[in-house]
Write a structure and sequence with these properties.
This is Arginine and glutamate rich 1. By secondary structure, this protein is mainly α. It has helices at 2-25, 45-127; strands spanning 27-31, 39-43. A hairpin with a 7-residue loop joins strand 1 (27-31) and strand 2 (39-43).
Length: 144
C-alpha cells in the first residue's frame, strides 16, 4: 500500500513536471478584439517575447503595405485626374478645330456663291438677258 502511495505521488510529480515543461515550451497568445493590433502574451516570457517581436514585425509589414497601397491609390487618383484634364483639353482643342473648319467651309461656300453670281451676271451681259444692255432700236426714218 505504501508502495502504491509512493507510485501515485511519483506519477503526480511526473505529471506536474510534464505540465511545467509544456508551459515552458508554449506561449499562449490572447487576442483582444478591442485592440486588434495588440497581442497579449502569457506564460513563458522568453517565448512570449519572441512572439511579440514576430507580431510587431508582422504589424510593421502590414503597416508598410497599407502605406504603399494608400500611396499607390493616391498616385492612381492623381493620374486619373490628369488624364481627365488632358481629355477635356483635347476635346476643347478638337472643338476649336472643328469650329475653324466650319468657318473656313462657310467662307469657301460664300466665295463660291459669289463667283457663281458674278459668272451669271457676266453670262447675262454677254447674252443680253435682262436689262444688262440698253435696247437697240433701229428706225427707217431718215433724219433730216
Amino acid at each position: 500500500m505504501e508502495k502504491q502511495l509512493l507510485e501515485e505521488l511519483e506519477r503526480q510529480r511526473q505529471a506536474e513536471l510534464a505540465a511545467q515543461k509544456a508551459r515552458e515550451y508554449f506561449c499562449y497568445i490572447q487576442y483582444d478584439a478591442e485592440k486588434p493590433h495588440q497581442f497579449f502574451a502569457v506564460q513563458n516570457k522568453r517565448l512570449c517575447l519572441e512572439w511579440s517581436v514576430l507580431a510587431s514585425s508582422w504589424l510593421l509589414v502590414i503597416e508598410e503595405e497599407r502605406a504603399k497601397r494608400e500611396e499607390l491609390e493616391r498616385i492612381l487618383e492623381e493620374n486619373n485626374r490628369k488624364i481627365a484634364e488632358a481629355q477635356a483639353k483635347l476635346a476643347e482643342e478638337q472643338l476649336k478645330i472643328v469650329e475653324e473648319q466650319r468657318k473656313i467651309h462657310e467662307e469657301r461656300m460664300k466665295l463660291e456663291q459669289e463667283r457663281q453670281r458674278q459668272q451669271k451676271e457676266e453670262q447675262k451681259i454677254i447674252l443680253g438677258k435682262g436689262k444688262s444692255r440698253p435696247k437697240l432700236s433701229f428706225s427707217l426714218k431718215s433724219q433730216d
